[in-house]
Amino acid sequence: MSGKKFDKQVVRRLLRYTRPYAGYLILAMLSALIGVALSLWVPVLIGDAVDCIIEAGKVEFAPLLQVLIKIGVVTALSALFQWLMAYFTNIITYRTVMDLRNQLFRKLHSVPLKYIDGTSHGDIISRVVNDIDQVSDGLLQGFTQLFTGIVTIVGTLVFMLAANVWVALLVFVLTPLSLFVASFIAKNTYRHFRGQTAIQGRLSGYVEEMVSNQKLVKGFGFERRSMEKFGQINAELYTEGQKAQFFSSLSNPCTRFVNAIVYAAVGIAGAFSTLAGFMTVGQISMFLSYANQYTKPFNEVTGIITQLQTAFASAQRVFAVMDEPAEEPDPADAVEKTSCEGAVEISHVDFSYDPTRPLIQDMNLSVKPGSRIAIVGPTGCGKTTLINLLMRFYEVNSGSISVDGTPVRRMTRGGLRALYGMVLQESWLYSASVRDNIAYGKPDASLDEVIAAAKSAHADSFIRRLPDGYNTIIAEDGGNLSQGQRQLLCIARVMLADPPMLILDEATSNIDTRTEILVQRAFEKMMEGRTSFIVAHRLSTIREADVILVMDQGHIVEQGTHEALLAKGGFYARLYNSQFARADD
What we know:
single chain, alpha/beta, ABC transporter transmembrane region fold, Rossmann fold, 2 domains, 6-stranded mixed β-sheet, 4-stranded antiparallel β-sheet, disordered N terminus
């Protein structure tokens, strides 16, 4: 897509977000019109004041005083309307950007999980925060300069034509020089600013990656290599930014040079006109002021080229997320289940993240209500993928999954996911109180319910030892808690939600053995009568499962009870014995 075509599309798209604030837009334009008209009247009054000074020692003081009073009043009113214009444009800009950021954040909740998994999280954050800030700055500058600039150019021409047509035409003929300079600079800066914003996104992603994993960086002595990588990306940003700033820095010197030519031409033409008797000295003063005011908008426009080009490049990155295909919407007649028996049927399911690398092929499974299904197998065999499909985080490529006989595609995603309580290996907490984190899935839960859930998860004792107990504010991502404590809170969260089905993906892998025994007992109680899917690497934790699914390379290679699979002496038996053999060694 060409830069020119892109600019038009971006401008049109951004302006659509300003439509709800059209009233403020009209008020801003009226304020700009009145403010600029008043400011353009000032040179006329100054010219009148100059003409009141006839010669040395001969000044018409009474008319001069009246003119000076008028200048003071007009200047004050002009300043007032310019302030009103800035006030209204600020409202338009910040409300527009607020709407844009809200829509972008909503979009992140509607895109498929595949997009979130496949995109750098730091880059996404950069688009939501930094890029929209750049759009905000560009809009604010654009509205302010365009309103005043257009009115100033048109108004100045009208005033000059009324005073002297030939001098006004001279100014008008020299105008294309400024336009040519501005156009040349704009074409050369856009390409570099687009590259600069892309590198900024990469840099944000890398910084987020390194900061969030500092323990691993230090633990593996990766500091030097991480700094080298950061320095490499930073050097690319420096090079691209330097080129962008070089072209944009040409704008003011070049346009000021053109403006000086215009000013000199007006001065010379005015002097000859005065000698010929066509103009007064006061009118020359007025024309020189107008020459400055007429060329000033060109200076301002070219001066904000950097801001505008950065804003356009940032808007492209924001709209790229906006244009991502959303999740397939739920059917209009989708079923909203609030409860279920827990019968799950997987029929001839095929799925792969990459079409060139098949993962799950022709999977079939029938789960009875209340069953405990353990899923085991080597890393990368498809255990977590199966959980993603059950929760509809990803859609199957072919085949079907149903709950109580209803295909999940005929159910609302929210309703389906509410049927499951999920505890993952990676715990997630947000910056809020302990109570709020436990009640995340049931915000209206009473404190007694929260405490009961915490006791069931064996988290109550450590919570009460925190500085403010259940009102203790947890740092971002649970930074002020141990990994085991974070996991206990996640388990308590599910126990409070009390869902009809459970998914436990290595739920006790990050807690100590003694606490694990207590939590396993709590799980035993919670799993009674509930269909439960348990992903485990430690096979000793799933001996009591009703059915153990043994997966390898996306296929269920064995299934049965613990005793039956051991007796069979197959894949499961080798996995199980290898764990205990290592323990014996």
